[in-house]
Design a protein that fits this description.
The structure holds two protein chains of two kinds. By secondary structure, chain A is of the alpha/beta class. Chain A contains ten helices and 22 strands. Chain A folds into two domains: about 375 residues, no CATH class; about 55 residues. In chain A, strands 3, 4, 6, 7, 9, 10, 12, 14, 15, 17, 19 and 21 form a twelve-stranded mixed sheet that branches. In chain A, a hairpin with a 2-residue loop joins strand 1 and strand 2. In chain A, helix 1 runs antiparallel to helix 7 and helix 9 packs antiparallel against helix 10. The longest helix of chain A is centred in the last third of the chain and has 17 residues. The radius of gyration of chain A is 21 Å and the shape is globular. Chain A starts with a helix and ends with a helix. Chain B is α/β, with parallel strands linked by helices. Chain B has one domain: Rossmann fold. Chain B is built from eight helices and twelve strands. In chain B, the strands form three sheets. A six-stranded mixed sheet of chain B has the order 6-9-10-3-11-12, with helices on both faces. Chain B has a four-stranded antiparallel sheet with strand order 2-1-4-5, covered by helices on one side. Chain B starts with a strand and ends with a helix. The chains are: A alpha/beta, B alpha/beta. Chains A and B meet through helix 8 and helix 9 of A and helix 2, strand 6, strand 7 and helix 3 of B.
């Protein structure tokens, strides 16, 4: 591992800084603290988690959510997991859900991790993948054996609390043939004046006929640089579903590689760009086998000068005949100073496929506001209602507690209360 | 009957073009007034200005509602005081259902929370009267509605919100005979159950058949050109507006 880290660092040092997206010149990586250790070890009993950390997570509703509707929970605070627990019956079915470091040192999993870790996202992929390879810490390892269906989701929650810090967690999920999993990832951070960095990495391996639903809700503070890399490899008849909701400064484009016949990818995303935020998001899908299909639905909201850019890339390889892809993106601007861009890329190498793209960009009209106000809603309530409606079909895809959080977030953003 | 709405010398402009020039009229509680006139005479402008549309600027005069000067109040505050307008072109709101929207609006207008069950009962009763299928409650507000369905949805809002004064801006235009009947039934029910007042902006008489008109105002080029009782409506239908244009 040390060798791997050093090699990654070397790649990082010789790779130039990205210059094609939002401005990240406010980020000085040399000043980012890459590792912060908690005094305590990882716990499986919530009561043993230190009080200040416990309080933060309790405010976020993590242990409650676990009691009510989750099969297992992991909570990472800064650089390390502070809490991890999996229901007994889940563990008995052979499902592994643990932190990546301990799994790596367990002879049972060492081999499988070695053959998958940073193979989908190699350090040479881009500068921040290299940085991740050099300094990664924390994160989760999930393994679902053949034909095991997890009816209730697993969740991991990442909280970056220290200022001027970086979070570099690595999530590695492997689904064997016919397995099913819903994995929920939640991230948040309080606001500090110093810039923080999130350069996590998510690698998902979806086996033959397996189905993985990967939901993310990110509520990072506004001076967080979110440069995350997510990638899924989907085998024959397998399905990946991405659901993503976010509000921060980011570069984020989950990629799905449809590697086996009939593999499917679905991406549903929503972004909210407020003042000073530049959200550069999208998704990338590579059709690398016949009869594969992909569906992308995204909504972006920008307000108070916020910028949202949606980039989609659909690549259909020569061998991917009979494939289908449909991309649909809608943007809503709440005022005249906000901005929204849509940059679709399609690279189609076969004639025998069915590709569709639809984009809609709109602004809330004064007449619409007047209509709602004439029914007794204040201007703020009217705007929030329009935004909630706009986000509706995406919120429905989110797990319940996140849908609620999402609605709260819209409410807060509309009031301009999020600092 | 005591005064509900009093408009005094009201002038209003949109983008520096004055569209209303010194309009005055008074509506008593529970009265039904009709406003008629050519296309472009300023009828819809008058309705929108009374409701507080930000598209228009009041350049002179006052609007008094229930004894309070509302000339500079925002539309939501006017709605909470009991004003309502049925839009000529109702707006589509994707992602927000008819039921969700109306429950929200009702809570804002009354300032009270209403239990879902009580609200649904009220909503379904009004929908039945308007011959709307229950499934409309769960459809997105006005999205994909036909012209007639949108107008019915406006009257549904009128019945639920039960204002003291409702302005109906060409609610009957573009409706077939049956739809006008249904909408009229809704308006009658509003009058019967709330005793509220009405300002009906219209081109034809069908919607007025079921109503007792107290007063008629003819607008021409942004001014009141003539006023009278119910008989004036028939005069307009028979002889057109031309005769009033010179009376300014």
């Amino acid at each position: 591992m040390r060798e791997f880290r050093l090699k990654s660092l070397e790649v990082y040092n010789r790779t130039p800084m990205v210059d094609w997206g939002p401005d990240i010149s406010g980020l000085d990586v040399d000043r980012i603290v890459t590792y912060i250790r908690q005094k305590n070890r990882m716990n499986t009993d919530w009561n043993d988690v230190p009080d200040d950390i416990k309080e933060t997570f309790e405010k976020l509703g993590i242990p409650q959510a676990e009691r009510e509707s989750l099969a297992g929970v992991g909570a990472q605070y800064d650089s390390e997991l502070v809490y991890h627990n999996v229901r007994e019956e889940v563990a008995q079915s052979g499902v592994v859900y643990t932190d990546l470091e301990s799994a790596m040192h367990d002879p049972k999993y060492a081999e499988i991790i070695k053959s998958h870790f940073m193979k989908l996202v190699p350090p040479t992929d881009h500068k921040f993948a290299a940085l991740h390879g050099a300094v990664w810490s924390g994160g989760s390892f999930v393994y679902v054996p053949k034909n095991v269906h997890l009816d209730i989701p697993l969740q991991s929650y990442f909280r970056l609390n220290a200022k001027g810090a970086g979070q570099f967690e690595h999530t590695l999920i492997i689904l064997e043939e016919g397995a099913y999993l819903h994995f929920i990832e939640g991230c948040s951070a309080p606001k500090y004046y110093e810039a923080s960095l999130h350069a996590g990495c998510v690698e998902l391996y979806v086996g033959k006929g397996a189905k993985l639903r990967y939901s993310t809700i990110e509520n990072w503070s506004k001076n967080m640089y979110n440069l995350n890399t997510k990638r899924a490899l989907v085998e024959e008849d397998g399905t990946i579903e991405w659901v993503s909701g976010s509000s921060h400064v980011s570069y984020l484009y989950p990629m799905s590689i449809l590697n086996g016949r009939n593999a499917r990818a679905e991406f549903t995303g929503i972004t909210f760009a407020g003042e000073g935020q530049n959200l550069d998001t999208g998704a990338k899908i590579i059709h690398n086998a016949p009869d594969t299909s992909s569906y992308m639905t995204t909504k972006s909201i920008s307000k108070s000068g916020g910028v949202s850019t949606f980039r989609s890339a659909v690549v259909v390889k020569e061998n991917a005949h009979g494939s289908k892809s449909s991309v649909n993106c809608e943007s809503l601007m709440l005022d005249r100073i906000s901005r929204s861009d849509t940059i679709p890329v399609m690279d189609i190498r076969t004639k025998h496929c069915d590709i569709g793209h639809e984009a809609k960009i709109g602004r809330i009209s004064d007449e619409t506001i007047f209509y709602l106000m004439s029914r007794g809603l204040s201007e703020e309530q009217a705007r929030a209602m329009i935004v909630r409606g706009f986000a509706d079909n995406v919120s429905k895809e989110l797990p319940l507690e996140y849908a609620v959080e999402m609605n709260n977030l819209i409410g807060l953003e509309m009031k301009g209360n999020i600092g | 009957m005591s005064e509900l709405l009093k408009i005094e010398g009201l002038s209003a402009a949109a983008e520096d073009v004055e569209l209303l020039h010194g309009v005055s009229l008074t509506v008593g509680e529970g009265e039904t007034h009709v406003v008629m006139g050519h296309n472009g005479a300023g009828k819809s402008t008058l309705g929108s200005v009374i409701m507080g549309s930000p598209e228009y600027k009041v350049t002179d005069g006052k609007i008094i509602f229930g004894g309070e000067d509302i000339t500079s109040l925002s539309a939501d505050k006017r709605a909470r005081l009991g004003l309502f307008i049925s839009f000529q072109n109702p707006i589509e709101i994707p992602g927000i259902t008819v039921a969700e929207f109306l429950r929200n609006a009702l809570e804002q207008v009354t300032g009270k929370r209403i239990k879902l069950w009580d609200f649904k009962k009220k909503l379904y009763a009004a929908m039945e009267l308007l011959e709307m299928d229950k499934s409309y409650a769960d459809r997105d507000l006005n999205v994909g509605f036909s012209g007639g369905e949108k107008k019915k949805a406006e009257i549904l809002q009128l019945l639920i919100l039960a204002p003291k004064l409702a302005i109906l801006d060409e609610t009957d235009s573009g409706l077939d005979v049956d739809a006008v009947k249904t909408v009229s039934k809704g308006i009658e029910e509003y009058k019967r159950s709330t005793g509220g007042a009405l300002i009906v902006i219209t081109h034809n008489t069908r919607i007025l058949e079921a109503l007792t008109v107290d007063k008629t105002h003819i607008l021409s080029s942004g001014r009141i050109a003539a006023e009278g009782g119910a008989e004036l409506v028939n005069e307009v239908i028979e002889n057109g507006f031309e005769q009033f244009a010179g009376r300014e």
